[in-house]
Amino acid sequence: MEPRSLILDMDVGVDDSLAMLYLAGRPGVRITAVGSVHGNVEASLAAQNGRRVLELCGLDDVPVAVGCWRPMAQELATAGWVHGDDGLGNTNQPDPRRGPTREHAVAQLIRLAHERPGEYDVVATGPLTNLGTALVMDRDLPRLIRSVTLMGGSFDGVGNAAPFGEANIWHDPEAAELVFNAGWPVTMVGLDVTMETRLEEPELEAIAAADTPQARFATAILQHYLGVYARSFGGRRICPLHDPLAAGVAVEPSLVMSSADVEVHVARAEGPTRGMTMVDRRPKYMEAEGRSGPFTRVALRVDSRRFVDQLVGVLTHPLPAPAAAA
Ligand code: RIB
Ligand code: CA
């Protein structure tokens, strides 16, 4: 079977890195290109981190393009307190061997989409500024991209960066509104499922005991992140798997055990709800009342056990030889 070809769009911090490692280790997956975006860290540093992770996986040839450095309509805000100032838990990783491409991440996304219409699945695990900008630049994009799976938002409107704002949506609400309503197939993997899909003590011990480069890297970069999440989990050093789960759902949709196809909008008015995902929960028959989509597939329940086992398997076993580039 032809591998699935992915374009990744990431604010490469700790969990984005785990998502990349997961994808590098899954069969039938080809990472074609990566675009970086502001969010956990600045976009240029996110690109460097992307290169670091790819090189660790032997994926030196995968291009990484620097993307949008700031949100569309608000100031840049980064999250060093969660991911470390370097985005990798302040672990002082060696410089990558190669730099980013000269192309901008938005240009890269548009170019690839036109070169191979309908072939690429996009996995977005940061603020959606690159995707939103690409939509503003190219009206054809939605019909050229096979699917978009994003980590962001929540079905019930609960946030993490703000009371009602999940970080990726809250960092650029205007871009997120464009992405949810462009008419391309979007799957939203939000806090409802990512907070319930975790690395807990047994998995962390298995990863720490494994003698693979990716397990050593994961163990190192997780330490700071586990300290941050310990405050949410009563002192337990465990963590949710936000971005890795979105990556998992992108390449293995059967991980989703229940979902809802609903209209999603993003609150953009100034005030406490800015960045909140608002889900139209009315039943389908209300379409007659003007509810016409586009609809987003929102994951409501996932097979967390199967996913966590897959992730631990990838981290603790040798990575496969990279699939040929395309
Ligand atoms: O809310 C979780 C998201 O915010 C993840 O993508 C994480 O990397 C941070 O960016
Ligand atoms: Ca992220």
Structure characteristics:
12 strands; binds calcium ion; binds alpha-D-ribofuranose; 13 helices; 8-stranded mixed sheet; 326 residues
Main beta sheet:
8 strands, mixed
Number of helices: 13
Rg estimate, integer Å: 18 Å
Shape: globular
- The poorly predicted ranges are none
Q: What level of helicity do the residues show?
A: 25-40%
Q: Would you report the number of β strands? A: 12
Helix-strand topology string:
EHEHEHHEHHEHHEHEHHEHEEEEH
SS-based structural class?
alpha/beta
Bound molecules: alpha-D-ribofuranose, calcium ion
Strand content: 15-25%
Mean pLDDT: 95
Task: Describe the model.
- With 326 residues, this protein is an alpha/beta fold.
- The chain has 13 helices and twelve strands.
- The protein has helices at residues 14-25, 43-56, 80-83, 105-115, 129-137, 141-144, 167-170, 173-180, 191-194, 201-209, 213-230, 242-251, 304-316, and strands at residues 4-10, 29-36, 64-65, 120-124, 145-151, 186-189, 198-199, 239-240, 256-262, 264-266, 277-279, 296-302.
- The strands form three sheets. An eight-stranded mixed sheet has the order 3-2-1-4-5-6-12-9, sandwiched between helices. A two-stranded antiparallel sheet has the order 7-8. Strands 10-11 form a two-stranded antiparallel ribbon.
- Helix 4 (105-115) crosses helix 5 (129-137), helix 10 (201-209) packs antiparallel against helix 11 (213-230) and helix 10 packs parallel to helix 13 (304-316).
- The mean pLDDT is 95.
- The structure holds alpha-D-ribofuranose (RIB) and calcium ion.
- Calcium ion binds at residues 10-11, 13, 15-16, 39-40, 125-126, 243.
